[in-house]
Amino acid sequence: MLRRLHTGGLIGINLGLIVWSAYFVLLYALMSLGCRYALDAMQALGSNIITVALAAIVITTLAFIGYLTWLAYDTWRHADDNRTRFRAAVAGLVDGISLVSTVWVGAPVFMVTPCY
Predict the structure, then answer these.
(1) Which of 9, 12, 25, 86 makes an SS bond possible with 5, Cβ 3.0 to 4.6 Å?
(2) H helices within the chain, ranges in order?
(3) How many Å apart are CA 98 and CA 44, to the nearest integer?
(4) Share of residues in the chain with pLDDT > 90 (%)
(5) Domain-located, residue 25
(6) Local confidence band at 43 (pLDDT 50, 70, 90 cut-offs)
(7) How many domains in the chain?
(8) Coil, strand or helix: which one is 55?
């Protein structure tokens, strides 16, 4: 079902960007709320709780957008007609851009201590 949705229409083709934008808002909202309520003082897994939560969100989003990218590639590779092939290629390009954007926005989570 996700394969048909992903390459079937305008929302499906832009699904990677939709997931990325939700991830972007969630990441910065959680960071702001965590700093506002001093959650950086709480420890979990050898780091503060904000970093652990943000890292989990980054990794989950990377996995999902990576899956969408693979799905678009697999659809493109096995497409029977040119229309499906084109939609899968566009979806794969959009998902690739979303994947790079997710890495770009999520990299500071692993490098910088929050709330300073």
Answers:
(1) 12
(2) 2-8, 10-13, 15-36, 49-77, 82-111
(3) 29
(4) 62
(5) yes
(6) confident
(7) 1
(8) helix
The one-letter code for the residue type at 69 is: T
Q: Which two tokens stand for residue 33?
A: 């709320």
Residue 73 lies in a domain: yes
Residue 114 located in a structural domain:
no
Structure tokens at 63: 């996995």
Q: How far is CA 49 from CA 19, 44, 56, 76, 114, in A?
A: 23, 5, 11, 41, 10
> How far apart (Å, rounded) are the C-alpha atoms in residues 13 and 93?
9
Question: Which residue, among 65, 20, 57, has the nearest Cα to 73 in the 3D structure?
Answer: 65
Q: How far apart are CA 91 and CA 65, in angstroms?
A: 11
pLDDT in tens, 91-105: 999 999 999 999 999
In a domain, 46, yes or no: yes
Q: Identify whether the C-beta of residue 49 lies closer than 8 Å to the C-beta of residue 115.
A: no
Q: What span, in angstroms and rounded, lies between the C-alpha atoms of 29 and 39? A: 13
Q: Count of alpha carbons within 13 Å of 115, Cβ hemisphere only?
A: 19
